[in-house]
Design brief:
alpha/beta, Arc Repressor Mutant, subunit A, 2 domains, about 55% helix, elongated
């Protein structure tokens, strides 16, 4: 056996339970899910997180097999974290669990390589089944969310318009948005104006609300 062959073998994880990361800013929900999943012999919750950055840090530290991510978390949403996990930890599959059945979120999630997209109304037993499904390399999308996505049409916003609009969601001034997006203030104003016009909104605050209602940001 070559040195390369021996190295490759030592990096392989020994057989065992599916290692799961749970990320949800609602502590009660996360704790209940962790307790219920712990009852499954073939699943092991190896880390928990309450924010997007914490979820990514836990993924890096524990290298789970499946990361179950809440869509809306402080710091960064589940799709953003799923994208980072896909790029940094290709062996970890991701799932999004959400109480917001908005079609734009589903499309973003699929583009980020998310393998599962389910509502928070799913039972713990069903979630355990879906974790196994995703770990096995399959994809599951809630059929109701999929139907809504097909019916809704595509977002009229460009990627940059959506990014800038999302950065404006917390009421940050243009100068701060420009700094975060590495753009000039004038360019930020142009993107915000364009996004508002496309959405038929009188200002950026209304544009954010309308875009979020559709799941486009």
């Amino acid at each position: 056996m070559t040195e390369h062959g021996r190295a490759a073998r030592t990096e392989e994880r020994p057989p065992g339970p599916v290692r799961v990361l749970l990320a949800d800013d609602e502590h009660l929900i996360r704790g209940a899910l962790a307790a219920l999943l712990a009852l499954e012999d073939d699943l092991a919750v190896v880390a928990e997180a309450a924010t997007g950055p914490e979820a990514l840090a836990m993924a890096r530290a524990h290298r789970p097999d499946v990361a179950v991510l809440d869509l809306q978390m402080p710091g960064a949403d589940g799709v953003t974290i799923a994208t980072a996990i896909r790029d940094e930890l290709p062996g970890c599959r991701t799932m999004i669990v959400t109480s917001h059945g908005r079609p734009g979120h589903l499309k973003r999630a699929l583009a980020a390589g998310v393998r599962g997209f389910v509502p928070k109304t799913v039972s713990a037993q069903r979630l355990a089944e879906l974790i196994r499904t995703v770990h096995a390399g399959n994809r599951y999308v809630d059929p109701d969310l999929a139907a809504d996505a097909i019916a809704s049409g595509d977002s009229p916003l460009t990627a940059r318009e959506a990014e800038v609009l999302e950065l404006a969601a917390d009421g940050a001034p243009v100068a701060e948005i420009a700094k975060r997006a590495s753009l000039s203030p004038g360019t930020v104003r142009n993107y915000l104006s364009s996004a508002a016009a496309k959405l038929g909104a009188e200002n950026r605050h209304t544009a954010v609300r309308l875009a979020r209602a559709k799941g486009w940001v």
